[in-house]
Specification:
Elements lengths: L10 E8 L2 H11 L2 E5 L8 E5 L2 E10 L8 E7 L3 H10 L3 E7 L3 E6 L5 E6 L17 E8 L2 H11 L3 E4 L8 E6 L2 E8 L9 E7 L3 H10 L3 E9 L3 E7 L5 E7 L3
Parallel strand pairs: 1-4, 5-8, 9-12, 13-16
Antiparallel strand pairs: 1-5, 2-3, 3-4, 6-7, 7-8, 9-13, 10-11, 11-12, 14-15, 15-16
């Protein structure tokens, strides 16, 4: 169903639905090498995210559409057929939120465990990010934090077509890796029973120094969700909550 050369299943953009887009813009423009450009529509309080050294969109900061989903990042995944993807999602317990066309087709889905993901049919399709270490300031990974990893495995395998394999996590909780066209695109980890946060996606941004970036984030009003952690042979990461509560990971390759 999903052709290997179609770009199907590649993560392309990320959107932050923020309760205060202007405040989020101020924070991220100070933390990363991002240029955040206001929308041409004066009534639209949105900003396009670009790396300062590469004028191509990485994603957007947009006003939140509902309080319960405010201050969360959502990944955009490329698909060949948005309508077919939506039909599969509904069949497996997901639901559809909206269609948008400007001029791409965006379809906002909620998976059966209440995590949001956006599917897109772009022209041309994206290509996998193979460069390692990833460019500084780029989104380099996405992890689904879910209350039901087995249900998530089935949903994303059937709906997006991602291959799934087990992966050791830093805290010993069940974890998997999603692969498209033979290359990893993201992963999922089971939330602990004690967790009160809803299921959601956690994107990671490549930085030059994880400790320095985390300390910088805290000085700008962020909170540390997970201190700097080493994954032997792979890299280092930390997780922060921005001043409005949106969680984001920062990452540095071991080889970088």
């Amino acid at each position: 169903m999903h052709e290997a050369d179609s770009g199907h299943g590649q993560l392309r953009y990320y959107t932050l639905r923020s309760s205060d887009p202007a405040r989020a813009r101020a924070f991220y423009s100070e933390l990363f090498t991002w240029r955040l450009t206001p929308s041409d529509d004066a009534s639209d309080d949105s900003f396009q995210i670009e790396r300062a050294d590469a004028p191509a969109p990485l994603g957007w900061i947009r006003p939140s559409t509902s309080p319960e989903h405010a201050d969360r990042w959502t990944p955009h995944v490329h698909v060949r057929d948005a309508a077919a993807t939506a039909a599969l999602a509904r069949k497996l317990g997901g639901r559809e939120l909206t269609f948008e066309s400007e001029p791409d087709i965006d379809l906002h889905l909620v998976d059966p465990i209440d995590a949001r993901i956006t599917v897109r049919t772009d022209d041309p399709p994206p290509t996998p990010l193979a460069q390692r270490p990833p460019p500084l300031g780029s989104f380099c990974w996405a992890q689904l934090l879910t209350r039901d990893i087995e249900r998530a495995r089935v949903f994303y395998n059937e709906v997006i077509g991602w291959s799934v394999s087990a992966f050791p996590s830093a805290d010993g909780l069940p974890a998997i890796v999603f692969t498209a066209s033979g290359a990893p695109v993201g992963g999922a980890r089971q939330l602990p029973v004690s967790a009160t946060d809803p299921s959601s996606w956690l994107p990671y941004v490549a930085v030059a120094d994880v400790r320095e970036s985390l300390e910088r984030a805290v000085s700008l009003g962020a909170a540390t969700q997970r201190d700097v952690t080493e994954l032997p042979g792979m890299g280092r990461f930390a997780v922060l909550a921005d001043p409005l509560g949106a969680t984001l990971g920062i990452w540095r390759d071991a080889a970088g």
